[in-house]
Each structure stands twice: as C-alpha cells, then as structure tokens.
Amino acid sequence: MGLGAQLGERLLGAAEYEGSPPVWLVTEGVVVAVSAAVLTTGSGVGAVLVGLSRPGSTAVVLVVVAAIALHLLITGAGHLLVAGVTALGVLLAPALSEVTTEAVLAGAGRDRDAVVTAVAHEPAGNPASYRSVRLRDGAPSG
Questions:
Q1: Bridge-partner residues for 116, per DSSP?
Q2: Interior CA angle at 137 toward 133 and 142, to 5°?
Q3: Could you report the per-residue pLDDT of 46-71, keeping only the tens digit for each?
Q4: Is 45:61 a contact under the CB 8 Å cutoff?
C-alpha cells in the first residue's frame, strides 16, 4: 500500500467495498447521526433544566461533542469527517446552548405584557436591582 493510499485511508476512512455502500453501513451512519443530534440537544436541555448557566450548558454540549468525536475515531471514521463534526459542534455549541435555554424557559413560562411600577438599585457593594411588576390591568403578577 502506497503512501497516498495510506493517507487517503486515514483522512477519508477505510472503504473496502465496490459500488454503493452496504445497507448496514448506511444504517449505522444514520443511527449515529440521529443519536448525536438527540444527545447534543438533550444535553443542552438537560443542563438548562438542572439550572446550569449558559456557559455551563455550552460546556455540557462540548463534552457530548467530544464523546461523539471519540466514538467516530474508535469506529474508524475518516479524520476529515471527525474534524468536520468536531468543528461544527464547537462552533454551534454556544448557539445550541442559547436556543435550548430560550426554548426551555419559554416552555416553562408564559409571555405577558406587564408594567414596571418601581425599580430599586442596591449600593455598589452589593450590585443588585429589584423591580416591582404588575400586569397591565393593575393585578399583581404571579
């Protein structure tokens, strides 16, 4: 086996079949892709439900992306595929974390129009602000 063939096998993965790929290989690829999508979004949602902040949620998603990349390397996927999946995961992790945070919080709460009736700020030693909010009809918000 020449150097070019070894490099091609390492970058693209071993493909020792003629013509179309076998059904089991296509099925495995689809299962891995669907599992990866479910795991990454599920980890983002789970991190939000547990109460992690956005950076914490992003870190959880990145750990799942690293696990998926490790699985691909162990199963003999090509390094270009693994690099592409990992780069895409790293680039999309913050956005996925933000989207899942917004979706979970929107699903857990209700959108309502409200009026801010008072705002109070604490001194510089304890930076906090408090707001009093009532609904538009004057009823206290829940």
A1: 133
A2: 45
A3: 887 787 878 888 888 899 999 999 99
A4: no
- Treating both helix axes as pointing N-terminal to C-terminal, what angle do 54-74 and 23-50 enclose, rounded to 10 degrees? 160
User: Which of 12, 25, 30, 27 has the alpha carbon at shortest distance from 79?
Assistant: 12
pTM above 0.70? no
Q: Which residues of 75-105 are buried (b: 16+ CB within 10 A; e: fewer)?
A: eebbeebbeebbeebeeebeebbeebbeebe
* DSSP three-state, residue 121: strand
**Residue located via tokens 């599920």:** 42
Is the Cα dihedral 60, 62, 64, 70 positive or negative? negative
CB 39, CB 68: distance < 8 Å: yes
Place of tokens 């070019």: 4
